[in-house]
Specification:
It comes from Microbacterium phycohabitans. InterPro entries: ASHA1/2-like_C, START-like_dom_sf. By secondary structure, this protein is of the alpha+beta class. The protein has 2 domains: 156 residues, START domain (Alpha-D-Glucose-1,6-Bisphosphate, Chain A, domain 4), CATH 3.30.530.20; 160 residues, START domain (Alpha-D-Glucose-1,6-Bisphosphate, Chain A, domain 4, 2-Layer Sandwich), CATH 3.30.530.20. The protein is built from 10 helices and 16 strands. The strands form 2 sheets. An 8-stranded antiparallel beta sheet has the order 1-2-8-7-6-5-4-3. Strands 9-10-16-15-14-13-12-11 form an 8-stranded antiparallel beta sheet. Helix 7 crosses helix 8. The longest helix is centred in the last third of the chain and has 16 residues. The radius of gyration is 21 Å and the shape is elongated. The two termini are 34 Å apart.
Length: 325
Amino acid sequence: MPVTSVESDTEALTMTLIADFAVGPDRLWAAFTDPRQLERFWGPPGWPATFDAFDFTVGGHAKYYMTSPQGERAGGAWEFTAIDEPRGFEVIDSFADENGEPLEGMPSMRMVFSFEATPEGSRMTNVSRFDSLEALEQVVAMGAVEGSTLAMNQLDAVLQGLREFAQGKGTRLEVLSDQHVRITRLIDGPRELVWRAHVDPDLMRQWMLGPDGWRMTTHEVDRRVGGGYRIAWAPEPGTEGEPFGFDGEILLLDDPRRMVQTEHMTGTDFPSTVNDLSLYEEDGATLLTLLIEYPDATTRDMVLATGMIDGMEESYRRMERVVMG
């Protein structure tokens, strides 16, 4: 994890985040000044950012919004006040309405991004300066420390490139908090086809099976926001195990980039999870990221102990072999 510290100073009215990376300052500069790269890490997991304006000039503005798993939007705006390529830049950062205009009653802050070389690569220092202690405490209470840490810890995949970051490493699990885990897998194939593999019933039956010896017996999906679904599996003759299935509701669809749905084990009183799937393509390969929100750490650990990750890896291997060809 690249973030090494996040500290608030109530006397100086600042919040300072420091992160270290195994790339040079020029590469960091490129990531923070390209809106398409910013979109991959600026929002924390579950709240990805979309920049719909980015005038990178002194006096220019950037406008963005972050989208929750339920489709809610939270807007933000930057005004660029200083640019010193490739050492850093400064912005006034504001909460914004749907038109990108600063929200009245919400604090603005002056953010300074600095990039410097280190023996191991580079260091990014982000200092946010507030007008009052009340503004600092308000932003911290809204989860800025946790959110900014989770957001910046997504940067490694952006800086290294998908294939260098993930190829050959299989299905990877990261425990982000008591309630959240992130699962990533590089699929050697285009995003459009990976998306189809997740929504086309005929393709799903070919790969979404877990270990060998299982078959999909039910696939009922109302593929729209608010639609319900039910999927079930059963073991083939001679394979041990009991039939099981999941049901839930689709919360968000952004074809072919993102799909969010609840997931509940059919026929049980187990609580539902929220599964947030996103796909990003680079150089003909697709990084699949699944962010799962559990109700608590106990449920998280119980589910992970079932061997879920191993079963997912078997399925993803099958997808590459059968669907990607």
